[in-house]
């Protein structure tokens, strides 16, 4: 079993980092810093809590003036790159939110995001002063470095995983749109992914807005086509007819669904279910094929999750065959429960057939 990501923050890592700090700031107490980080409940802390423990502990052993503490980090940040050093921008989040530190904190976040990512650290600034911070995000959207441009979009996602929800942007995403407009023709795929993820977040609360953006952007350029397709993934999984039609997927009567089989009708948790079917079309058309599992949850209700099989074209008179297996082995991200589940096949947003089976 793979070691959890949080395990990268171990005693060896902390001592190694402490030695880097000591080179820039001779008064740094490495032993005290490591002992403070590892004190009490360290073993039970999850990843983000460990990051916060490290940044808070740094504040106790770096110079007490924020400006002087940042100067120490500026001296070593080029040696501290990658995911493990998310505590650099987190340090800014913890200690740099006072108004008198605004400009310095923006400089620090802009700098640190190029080494790891400041997408989480900008969110308290957005919550505290959204207008001022969105002006900063629009400025960052024009930055020559792709990591900073990505921060402009990623940092203001309404529902960033692991990040604080931006309730004000869930209610009204309008302030985000100028940033996304600036970045829609960015040359970086890294930035495109963030723009698409931001729009996908917005689609969950304002689907009409994202559908209109999709209609405006699609077919104009390969960059915006890519963004729109990934931005609409939630709407596609919901079978939204307007979005499906943008990409040429129609619930065409010429598509035939044939020879559907699914077995067994009863499995135990840890086993798998198999299914197969054929698709035939009377004319050349595009097809998007998915299957959905209606999972029984802990309280007995059912919740649907959609899985994509393929997006392809089918010629007139052609028959295509598909077969899949789906495992009901417990995962860290999904636990299975006893009860009647259902598997359905979806073609171009329309459910073609379903099969009920028992999980025990």
TrEMBL record:
InterPro entries: ARM-type_fold, DNA_alkylation. This is DNA alkylation repair protein. SUPFAM superfamilies: ARM repeat (SSF48371).
């Amino acid at each position: 079993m793979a070691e959890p990501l949080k395990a990268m923050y171990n005693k060896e890592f902390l001592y190694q980092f402490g030695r880097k700090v000591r080179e820039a700031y001779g008064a740094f107490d490495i032993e005290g810093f490591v002992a403070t980080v590892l004190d009490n409940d360290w073993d039970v802390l999850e990843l983000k809590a460990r990051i916060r423990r490290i940044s808070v502990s740094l504040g106790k052993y770096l110079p007490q003036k924020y400006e002087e503490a940042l100067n120490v980090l500026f001296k070593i940040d080029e040696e501290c790159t990658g995911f493990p050093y998310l505590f650099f921008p987190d340090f800014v989040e913890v200690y740099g939110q006072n108004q008198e530190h605004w400009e310095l904190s923006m400089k620090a976040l802009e700098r640190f995001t190029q080494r790891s990512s400041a997408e989480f650290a900008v969110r308290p600034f957005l919550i505290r002063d959204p207008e001022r911070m969105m002006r900063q995000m629009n400025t960052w959207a024009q930055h020559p470095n792709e990591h900073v441009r990505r921060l402009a979009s990623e940092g203001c996602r309404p529902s960033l995983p692991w990040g604080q929800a931006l309730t004000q942007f869930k209610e009204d995403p309008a302030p985000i749109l100028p940033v996304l407009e600036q970045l829609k023709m960015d040359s970086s795929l890294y930035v495109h992914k963030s723009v698409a993820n931001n729009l996908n977040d917005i689609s969950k609360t304002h689907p009409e807005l994202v559908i209109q953006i999709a209609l405006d952007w699609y077919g104009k350029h390969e960059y915006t086509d890519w963004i729109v397709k990934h931005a609409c993934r939630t709407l596609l999984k919901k079978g939204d007819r307007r979005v499906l039609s943008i990409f040429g997927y129609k619930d065409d009567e010429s598509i035939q669904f044939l020879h559907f089989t699914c077995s067994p009708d009863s499995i135990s948790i840890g086993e798998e279910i198999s299914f197969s079917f054929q698709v035939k079309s009377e004319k050349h058309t595009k097809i998007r094929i998915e299957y959905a599992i209606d999972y029984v949850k802990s309280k007995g209700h059912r919740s649907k999750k959609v899985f994509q099989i393929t997006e392809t074209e089918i010629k007139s008179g052609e028959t295509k065959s598909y077969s899949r297996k789906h495992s009901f082995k417990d995962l860290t991200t999904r636990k299975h429960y006893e009860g009647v589940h259902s598997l359905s096949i979806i073609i171009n947003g329309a459910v073609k057939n379903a099969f009920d089976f028992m999980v025990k």
